[in-house]
Amino acid sequence: MAERTEERTREVEAESDGEFGVDVDATESLGGTTDATTEQSSESTHSYFSLRALLYAFGAVGGGMVLGGLIPLVPFTEMLGIALGGFVYGLVASQRRYPELAVAGGVSGGLTVVLSLLPQLAAGLNGTRLFAIAGAVGLVLSVLGHYFGRDLRDGLTKDL
Question: What is the distance between the alpha carbons of residues 93 and 20, in angstroms, rounded to a whole number?
Answer without folding.
Answer: 5
